Amino acid sequence: MTGSLTSPPVPPPVRGEPPQPGFARRHWTSIAPVVALVALIVAFSLMDSRFFQYENALNILRQSSVLLVLAMASTVVIMMGSIDLSVGSMLSFTAFTGALMVQNTGTTSLLLLLPVIGMACGLLNGVLVAYGRLPSFLVTLGTMYAFDGLAKYIAGGRPVSLRPGGVGDLFNTTVGGFPVVVLWALLVLVVAVLAARYTRLGRYMYAMGGNEKAARLSGVPAARYKVYAFLIAGLLAGIAGLLQLARARSASPDMGEPFLLPAIAAVVMGGTPLSGGVGGPFRTVTGVLIIAILGNGMVIAAVDPFLQNVIQGLVVIAAVALTIDRRKMSLVK
């Protein structure tokens, strides 16, 4: 259910019944993203020898860290069949609020409040979706504009710089030459994978994604756990805002905009359908790496920046078309 390739042995077909699909067909949504990832690595390595180097691998990991955390936020919500279009705006809002608080008070420890601010934003989404009985698509589309507009109103549309030193350095340094921001992103990934596999929250989110009505009739408090999911998404978006602010040393009201579609695309490309119920955080890693490696490889190959956007869009469509499970396609709840 969470992306493992192990499964019980398939019994031999009974006379008169259609044959069972083979291993590759049964696990196509898990295998295809990995094949695509390996193909990209091989292709870019053949195109330019600088791609397959340790320094460039660190660069890819550093560039994909914030996207990985934000994609985890999207995964949590998509697993239960909903969607959160406001994760990028929450990143912008929390990062901008943190930079402004430090600028006005000179206290960098206030940056640790950014995940809490993100949770407040997620709580608003969750309450409106779960108890207001509103579609998550429309609610988060509205809050996306609201968070963006609020950040621009407070800032007057101007970026705010973050002074060096203090807590911000905890997220923008290296340990033995390895970027700390990557370690923070990996910590988020491990916690997300364990929570999805071994906690009641994870099991309930898969159950609601598979069939929300059946889950509710089985005793799952669906409304409460929807709020929890959006709350966690807000928490992760706040962490992503903190990491991005520490990396960039400045915040602008629209800094989260480039992350929104790649975060959702990474989830679907990794094998978690928008209808929810299967997939999970571990699969999202593959989608994040595909997007990061594609972007990095095209820069090294000196592909025209405008053409890069075209290629990225086509690859995302192709990857989703190859990996999506059409049996589970339905309207996003």
TrEMBL record:
Its main location: membrane. Keywords: Cell membrane, Membrane, Transmembrane, Transmembrane helix. InterPro entries: ABC_transp_permease (IPR001851). Residues 8-21 have a biased composition (Pro residues). It is found in: Cell membrane. It is a multi-pass membrane protein. The chain crosses the membrane at residues 28-46, 66-90, 110-130, 137-155, 175-196, 227-247, 259-278, 285-303, 309-325. Pfam families: BPD_transp_2. Residues 1-21 are annotated as: Disordered. PANTHER family: ABC TRANSPORTER PERMEASE PROTEIN YPHD-RELATED-RELATED, RIBOSE IMPORT PERMEASE PROTEIN RBSC. This is Ribose transport system permease protein/putative xylitol transport system permease protein.
